[in-house]
């Protein structure tokens, strides 16, 4: 609902406000003044002018007559009438009704937009794409609170796919396709239907009509952020690293909240590739939940890793990175074995490359991790198989014989072998 107490104007004042809005709309279209046009649709801005217009509409109750009585306005009647209805409902807090009317307005606007040869109105279309998503989310909350099925966000997604189709042509309007794609991503992630992202991604990344570099930087950053997150879910860490690193590099450095959002996913990806972040980075962007994870990797401290995952379990699960972090256990084991190797090398260099399983068992016990020889043997076998440890296993003597050359290969930005 638009903020502020309703203040119904006089009949004359209401008439003036509505007529002013209609004139502003008509002038913005005829002058191709996209900045002015976009402001007229921005419900969520709660601007005083829209607030006063909404009050005027709810008082006057016959705005359609004003639209129809002038050729200047009536040509846009299919756009303006539902827009006014939406604004009235929005002001009264009837968000489901507001959404229905807004969707009708948006569809009518798209029809008009198709007829305009140039891309002058793209910014206004961006506002509509944003507003319909936000309004749909709020309408769904209203539906859910009344025990009804929330379905408006899904509807907004269908509308935005239609918009994407309009923009995905060869003309100058195509530069708007990425903004709409990003709004679609936000909807699909919110609804948990991320598989629907694939068809849009295919269109953006394989269609010859699109040149990624011609899109606005803001949209490229958002696109890379969401597609990077998708790669995290798919456990394609090199691709996730590429996309999220692109988003981070090109993100406005003043937008710290956005940088934090990117890092929330990039850090687990980097950790999976054996790259540890600096402590100052975690502090600066308030990502201290990763501090103990990083320390565990440095120390080879399995207990600390598990404690960190348990302590921040809800947060990591919500972000969808819990399983990624859980898989860091193998790197922690590698680090622990390496530390044992270094200590042994200092004591007896000639036997440094022979690690007894019972020594590893003792080290784990010291970390309050109770494991028997069979469990440790299994872990060492996996480490060798995954190329985190070079060597072979002597079953009879329960000894791991390490390679004398590079027994603990670094990941160097590559994922652990699956």
Automatic annotation (TrEMBL):
Q: Which InterPro entries match?
A: Csn12-like, PCI_dom, WH-like_DNA-bd_sf
- Protein name as annotated: Enhanced ethylene response protein 5 isoform X1
Q: Which GO terms describe its molecular function?
A: double-stranded DNA binding; RNA binding
Domain annotation PCI: ranges: 221-407
Q: Which PANTHER family match?
A: PCI DOMAIN-CONTAINING PROTEIN 2, UNCHARACTERIZED PROTEASOME COMPONENT REGION PCI-CONTAINING
